[in-house]
Specification:
With 406 residues, the protein is mainly alpha-helical. 65% of the residues lie in helices and 1% in strands.
């Protein structure tokens, strides 16, 4: 809906406002007349009509607002011009993703703007993805939009030759979109399936659009192999199941086979990038008969290679978790101590949750309980909180103490 409207409006903010006005109109009209047979088409038409009305009323609009389409592209008085094709990027949503990932903006600003405006990810979830506070992310998005307006950046759909320079930001946006769906930042459900499905669709389209780019296949392989576990990640009443507790017969074997095939092709294309290496790690997990039979030394080795091309604290934390399985939890604790000094992980719930698990496995019930409490303070997802509460109760009983009130 936004992608269709922005072609007419010429600006993301205006298109968003027109979409919101269309929802208001729908509430009024559908209450009176009933829901139409094609509600999506009704909303899109209403939003586009709102945009056309604005263009006709405000002749100077394109001089004042950043353009998503060039002035000569769309004639608001000619309906034939409202559905112009774009062979370079055939998918509506993906076209808008490429458009938002403008090279003039800082990479993080491109991705944040895309997640918020195009993918509909709430600002708190965008902030969590970047390990910053919600006010910081809101300010970052506002500054990006202000820069577009002040610099009069001529936003337009890029041609095929321009796609590679925007590709890394596009891949990052799709990956973070999937991540926010794979484990929801807040709410009752562990997974937001619509976001996972949307990201998978975009990844498939990217791999088909740019097959010569190995990282498009690496990303698709990563998402397929990760999403293959979706049905096994929760038990009755949405209870969270960790990797070692999942029924692997419920993993989607077709998705695993496709993911392994795609990943093998990406690995054969040359030195692997960050998405291909993550896909390779997911592939090791997918092929393991059990948690104990996982090739943990290989996982650690792949994380070492990943850190060489993408040195982030989250990757380092994941590597530490792998070290705990390869060499024992005691070997990983010093790694967590070092990561605890990184301010980017100060409010990251998986750091104290990982520490709690290592201390639990080492028999330090009191220390584990303290870390579980800290992880609970930072966790907003109900399924994850319930899991942490259960573990806290277990280690508190082991330590001979009552668990703190939830």
């Amino acid at each position: 809906m936004l992608s269709a409207t922005v072609r007419v409006a010429g600006d993301l903010d205006v298109a968003e406002e027109c979409a919101q006005e269309a929802y208001v109109s729908a509430l009024q009209a559908w209450t009176r007349d009933g829901v139409p047979e094609r509600p999506g088409a009704w909303l899109t038409t209403a939003a586009r009509n709102q945009a056309l009305d604005r263009l006709r009323r405000e002749v100077t609009l394109r001089r004042k607002l950043p353009l998503l389409v060039e002035p000569a592209t769309v004639d608001p008085h000619d309906p034939a011009d409202l559905d112009w094709p774009d062979a370079a990027v055939p998918d509506d949503r993906l076209r808008l993703v490429f458009t938002c990932c403008h090279p003039t903006l800082a990479p993080e600003a491109r991705v944040a703007l895309t997640l918020r405006l195009v993918c509909g990810v709430p600002t708190p979830d965008v902030a969590r993805a970047f390990l910053v506070s919600e006010p910081t992310m809101a300010a970052r998005i506002t500054r990006a939009k202000k820069k577009i307006a002040e610099a009069r950046i001529p936003y337009r759909v890029p041609g095929r030759a321009e796609l590679p320079e925007r590709l890394d930001s596009v891949l990052t946006a799709v990956h973070l979109l999937f991540s926010t769906g794979h484990t929801a930042g807040e709410g009752d459900a562990l997974v937001r399936e619509e976001l996972c499905d949307r990201a998978l669709h975009l990844a498939r389209t990217l791999a088909a659009l740019l097959p010569e780019q190995a990282e498009t296949r690496g990303l698709l392989g990563l998402l397929l192999l990760t999403d293959a576990r979706r049905a096994a990640r929760t038990a009755e009443q949405g209870r969270l199941l960790l990797l070692g507790d999942q029924d692997r017969t419920r993993w989607d074997q077709r998705a695993i086979l496709e993911g392994l095939t795609v990943t093998a092709g990406a690995l054969a294309s040359g030195p692997p990038g960050r998405f291909t290496l993550q896909a390779a790690i997911a592939g090791v997990h997918a092929m393991a008969p059990s948690l104990e039979q996982t090739d943990w030394p290989r996982v650690v080795h792949l994380y070492d290679r990943l850190l060489a091309v993408w040195n982030t604290p989250v990757v380092a934390l994941n590597r530490a978790a792998a070290v705990a399985f390869a060499d024992g939890p005691a070997a990983a604790l010093p790694l967590l101590d070092e990561l605890a000094t990184d301010p980017r992980l100060a409010d990251y719930p998986y750091l104290p949750a990982t520490r709690a698990d290592l201390l639990r496995r080492l028999g330090d019930a009191a220390g584990a309980a303290q870390s579980y409490r800290r992880a609970m303070e930072l966790t907003a997802n109900a399924a994850e909180r319930a899991f942490l509460e259960q573990r806290l109760a277990e280690v508190s009983r082991a330590a001979g103490a009552e668990p703190a009130p939830g």
